[in-house]
Write a structure and sequence with these properties.
- The chain has eleven helices and no strands.
- With about 210 residues, the chain is an all-alpha fold.
- It folds into two domains: about 10-60, Orthogonal Bundle (Arc Repressor Mutant, subunit A); about 60-205, Tetracycline Repressor, domain 2 (Orthogonal Bundle).
């Protein structure tokens, strides 16, 4: 299984980029714990340990900060999906790889997941990013379609619809963790990965023997 993982927004590279990342990281924490609509830009500057004016040098508003968090995180999601898609593994294993990357994001950076689930998905500006969102679904769709072509998955199902079902299941599990409705320890995360893959790939499988592999 590929070890591709989402890069953290807290990666540091020095200089101006270091300050920019510091502010983004602080924004994630503030949005996660105070809420996007109730926090102030001053809260983010204080959390980052930078002057108010310096924050505005990099970002014009809270809105731009939230937009940047989404754009950079989703870019990492697309890179991860492409990396998994390009392997020679079975379609089932590639879908399992995507499930691991997305669900383990909760363990790596729960605040980032909280912001994506609570704030970004409700943002009125999400419609402007439909093309980027569709790109991730397209990658999953290609994996499923290839599985159909190679006889691993049933050919009578719509791969596009199946890609939405697969991603939707992952998103709902992440939402359950954010809302505290599901267990989220290491064992629970592993069970979630296994359950999604077994349920989705079991339904897609060309025969029941493949579903049990």
């Amino acid at each position: 299984m590929p070890c591709t993982r989402l890069r953290r927004l807290t990666d540091r590279s020095g200089g101006q980029e270091d300050k920019r990342r510091l502010i983004l990281d602080a924004a994630v924490r503030v949005f996660a714990h105070k809420g996007y609509h109730t926090c102030r830009v001053a809260d983010i500057a204080e959390e980052a340990g930078v002057a108010h004016g310096l924050l505005y040098h990099y970002f014009r508003s809270k809105e731009e900060l939230l937009e940047t968090i989404f754009r950079e995180t989703w870019r990492d999601v697309l890179d991860a999906v492409r990396s998994v898609e390009e392997t020679d593994e079975s379609a089932r294993d590639r879908l399992a790889g995507i499930a691991k990357i997305l669900l383990r994001a909760w363990r790596r950076d729960p605040d980032l997941v909280r912001v994506l689930v609570r704030e970004v998905t409700r943002s009125s500006h999400l419609q402007q990013r439909i093309g980027e969102i569709e790109a991730a679904f397209a990658g999953i769709e290609r994996i499923i379609a290839r599985g159909q072509k190679e006889g691993e998955f049933r050919s009578d199902l719509d791969p596009r619809m199946a890609s939405y079902v697969f991603y939707g299941a992952l998103e709902e599990i992440l939402t359950g963790w954010v809302l505290g409705q599901l267990e989220d320890g290491d064992e629970a995360i592993a069970r979630a990965e296994e359950t999604v893959v077994d349920v989705i790939c079991g339904g897609l499988a060309a025969d029941r023997e493949i579903a049990k592999v």
